[in-house]
Write a structure and sequence with these properties.
Layout: H1 12-34, H2 42-64, H3 72-76, H4 83-99, H5 101-104, H6 107-114, H7 126-137, H8 139-147, H9 150-157
Amino acid sequence: MKICPLTELEDENWLCDLGFMVDITKHLNDLNVQLQGPDQLLHSMFSKIKSFTSMLSLWENQLKDNDCTHFPTLKKYNPTSCVQYALECSGLLESFNATFHDIKSKQLELDIYSIPFNVTPASAASELQVELIKLRSDDTLKTMYLNKPLLEFYRVHVSNEEFQT
């Protein structure tokens, strides 16, 4: 059996690249796990995606300044420049923005269901305005909304008969 030396393990640039890949993969995996599970509502999942894209933007700017705070594996290898990793974050950000563009364009519709007491009825679709006014005018429902998880609130306190679309 012939043993071949791994010259990559002596290459500082390669080790930095590997460190960055380890860290960014962990960040992506953490997001993936957050998006899984039962009873996930679209607005909640989209909030997590918006948070992640904001972090990508933050990381891009930090990496441009050679700040590896959120990339601990990369930081161990003391890279001389992190500009190429900032570009990778920028590319990921562009991909996320392109992938989730359709959902971003539906933000008002998501807000009607996720934060109905903060949406102005006039900004909603015509067919939802009356139901939204009824919902917003019911102080008992507002109290329930503030004290229960959103899915439970809709299951228990909002009937199809009373609020039809």
